[in-house]
Amino acid sequence: MKTIGQKILDIKEQLPPQVNLVAVSKFQPKESIEEAYESGQRLFGENYVQELCDKAVQLPQDIQWHFIGHLQSNKVKYIAPFVSMIHSVDSKKLLQEIEKQAAKHSRVIDVLLQVHVAQEETKSGLSDAELDELLDELKTLSFPHIRFCGIMGMASFSNDQDLLDREFNQIHALFQKAKQTTFSQIESFQQISMGMSGDWPLAVKCGSTLIRVGSSLFGERKK
Ligand SMILES: *Cc1c(COP(=O)(O)O)cnc(C)c1O
Predict the structure, then answer these.
(1) What's the rounded Cα separation, in Å, for the pair 35 and 76?
(2) Ligand 1 within 6 A of 213 CB?
């Protein structure tokens, strides 16, 4: 059996230089994260505020924590002191709260706007129309403590490669639209977060720059 460290190195070997691996550690024990850390991994993704806060105090301080789950505005304050990037921003209200909390800690927080392209109803993220509306609003708003870095999306839970290919290309197209309009002067706007354990090679072919891989590194989650 391959160790977590070997699995991480295997994936990294296959990634083009502009693509980074976020190791998704939700529901995984501290020991598994430490093992990944030993192999050089520094980017970790978590979905739940309380779990992230518990882990962040116990684990090495040079870990870059990416928040990838649904985020309620009233919980931003708990992660604002240390979070490195928030992938799951899908409203103006959330942006305003991130701005307020980041300012309080004299930090600039990296964010991605999460779009919804998958077939499942339950997944969060902005619809096409909501993205357009937010992009429009952002032209006139200023968030000095937020760095807009790109777009995040999830494809459907499916093995249909054509469907996944279409959805990843859709996410890429939404990134292009945002980059060519509201963010045309924003140099930091270059990331596309897409691709998980089952579909990351295809996501990379479609232009992903951040893959979020959990179960294929750490095994099944111990909920
Ligand atoms: C859990 C999760 C992942 C990782 O999924 P795996 O299939 O375990 O690789 C990636 N992105 C998000 C948003 C998640 O919630």
Answers:
(1) 28
(2) yes
Q: Judge if the beta carbon of residue 211 lies within 6 A of ligand 1.
A: no
- 136-178: pLDDT as tens digits: 999 999 999 999 999 999 999 999 999 999 999 999 999 999 9
119 CA to middle of ligand 1, Å? 16
The answer to whether the CB of 33 is under 6 A from ligand 1 is no
Please give the Cα distance from 37 to 48 (Å, whole number). 20
Ligand 1, atom 7, lies closest to the CA of: 197
Binned at pLDDT 50, 70 and 90, residue 209 comes out as very high
Reported pTM: 0.97
65 with 56: CB under 8 angstroms?
yes
Cβ–ligand 1 contact at 214 (below 6 Å): yes
Indicate if the pLDDT at residue 223 is higher than 90: no
DSSP string across the chain: ---HHHHHHHHHHHS-TT-EEEEE-TT--HHHHHHHHHTT--EEEES-HHHHHHHHHHS-TT-EEEE-S---GGGHHHHTTT--EEEEE--HHHHHHHHHHHHHTT--EEEEEEEE-SS-SS--SB-HHHHHHHHHHHTT---TTEEEEEEEEE--S---HHHHHHHHHHHHHHHHHHHHTTTTT-TT--EEE---TTTHHHHHHTT-SEEEE-HHHH-S---
